[in-house]
Write a structure and sequence with these properties.
Elements (H helix, E strand, L loop, with lengths): L14 H9 L4 H8 L4 E2 H7 L5 H13 L3 E5 L7 E5 L1 H19 L1 H14 L1
Antiparallel strand pairs: 1-3, 2-3
Helix pairs in contact: 2-5
Amino acid sequence: MNDCSEKCGGRYSYGLAATLSIIAGKWKPLILYFLLDGPKRYGELKRNVHGVSAKVLIQQLKELEADRVLARTDYKEVPPRVDYALTPLGRSLADKIVPLCTWGTENMAEMVNTLAERDRSL
């Protein structure tokens, strides 16, 4: 494991900690995943990310924009049109989410059972 405290400005000991601080949030990985195939409008993201509230989606989009992994383009039109797209940094991060999606798909049955057992025990 590589220590990156100097490279990360002393704030994070490992690259994983820095990465997790960017994708922390229930919906951020899904947002990044759905943006992989191109820019999306808010409504498209809302439809793709099932279960997210409008307030939380807006908050997480703002955080991803502040973290420079997502770019927001306001076209200054009537009716208003805003697109969200991955930045080059965001694309490099979102590309790493694809293997997680593949793993999840391959292990879905076991995960569903495990999560159900966990929920029953809580």
